[in-house]
């Protein structure tokens, strides 16, 4: 099992932050596009190679985000019409998110087996998450899911203010 930590910088306009390991070494760099259409988040490994890309669909009635890992689309997060509150769904082949993913406390499953767990760290400056990787082959996908869900939440918060 591997533990990673993601902490966003609160006042970063470009959406640039790192994912660190337990020794506080940078493992991934996440960089958001600033004033660019479509809005994207690129996730790069320590060698600077892009391992995942999150893209917000531009012309859509309701917000929709596509997540690509190693050049192939692995999941879509989309807002659904709801009268009471925002409701999002995650579409993916074989990957499922269970738990309270809106509050960032959830498990990531692949074909019914837990491959990762995400827990929000409370009482920190900015959003901080502890990410446990149970299947290291799925590490990039799990990191992309965490960044994508956080991006959806930020987009929803900006839209409601």
How are the SSEs ordered, and which strands pair?
Blueprint: E1 2-7, E2 17-21, E3 26-32, E4 40-45, E5 50-56, E6 64-69, E7 72-80, E8 87-92, E9 95-100, E10 105-110, E11 113-121, E12 128-133, H1 139-160
Antiparallel strand pairs: 1-2, 1-12, 2-3, 3-4, 4-5, 5-6, 6-7, 7-8, 9-10, 10-11, 11-12
Tell me what you see in this structure.
The chain is mainly β and 161 residues long. It is 14% helix and 49% strand. The chain has one helix at residues 139-160; strands at 2-7, 17-21, 26-32, 40-45, 50-56, 64-69, 72-80, 87-92, 95-100, 105-110, 113-121, 128-133. The protein has a twelve-stranded antiparallel beta sheet, with helices on one face. Strand 9 and strand 10 (105-110) form a beta hairpin. It is globular. The mean pLDDT is 82.
List its traits.
mainly beta; globular; 161 residues; twelve-stranded antiparallel beta sheet; 1 helix
What pattern of helices and strands is seen along the backbone? Answer: EEEEEEEEEEEEH
Euclidean distance between termini CA atoms: 39 Å
Helix percent reads 10-25%
Ranges with pLDDT <50 over ≥5 residues? none
Query: What coarse outline follows from CA principal-axis ratios?
Result: globular
Average pLDDT: 82
Number of strands: 12
Gyration radius, to the nearest Å? Answer: 15 Å
Task: Describe the structure in brief.
The chain has 161 residues and is mainly beta. It has one helix at residues 139-160, and strands at residues 2-7, 17-21, 26-32, 40-45, 50-56, 64-69, 72-80, 87-92, 95-100, 105-110, 113-121, 128-133.
